[in-house]
Design brief:
Layout lengths: L21 H9 L3 E6 L5 H17 L10 E6 L9 H15 L13 H9 L8 E6 L24 E8 L5
Parallel strand pairs: 1-4, 2-3, 3-4
């Protein structure tokens, strides 16, 4: 039986995003320089990032620029594999993509453990002419035992040519 109209749901209330709506994904792609979506498991955060990635790809294709001058869109889903749950490996994969996109030398694998401290250097590759959109889902997968593991994030504001959209479990922000 369904609850009576106006009745509150029992148990945990979940905030649901409706990323199938083009406006929701477009707001993520065209919003402020840093957005953090936090919510419990199953609230639609991953779906929102996936929809935003599709919307960004459409927007970039609509610019009519050659690929070498198009905005860079980098999407990562943290915690889906063992490598995606380890911060150095997670950042290493992003830095390799940035190096290829911005025609920079890639990081050495031996330097992976240094990437959280040097993250700002990689983000500085983005320019006004070739901005970067980072869509990072599940950044709390890198927390370990402490929220200190989030220090690599350029918050509250990333560099001017970087747009950052993150998702995490709401408990990670507590």
């Amino acid at each position: 039986p369904s609850p009576a109209a106006g009745a509150k749901p029992k148990g945990k209330e979940r905030m649901r995003f409706e990323p199938r709506k083009r406006a929701d994904a477009a707001a993520v792609v065209g919003g402020s320089r840093a957005l953090v979506f936090a919510g419990p498991s199953g609230s639609g955060k991953t779906t929102l990032i996936a929809a935003a990635a599709r919307e960004a790809a459409k927007a970039c294709a609509g610019l009519g620029r050659p690929a070498a001058r198009a905005p860079v869109v980098c999407v990562r889903f943290g915690g889906l594999t063992a490598a995606a749950s380890e911060l150095p490996a997670f950042l290493f994969s992003i830095c390799c993509q940035l190096a290829a996109a911005y025609d920079a030398p890639p990081p050495a694998l031996a330097e992976a453990s240094q990437l959280p401290r040097r993250w700002g250097e990689w983000l500085s590759l983005a320019t006004e002419a070739r901005p970067l959109l980072l869509l990072l889902d599940g950044v709390d997968a890198h927390l370990g035992d402490s929220t200190a593991a989030l220090r690599w994030l350029p918050l509250p504001q990333p560099p001017p040519s970087v747009r950052l959209v993150l998702t995490c479990d709401d408990k990670a922000l507590a």
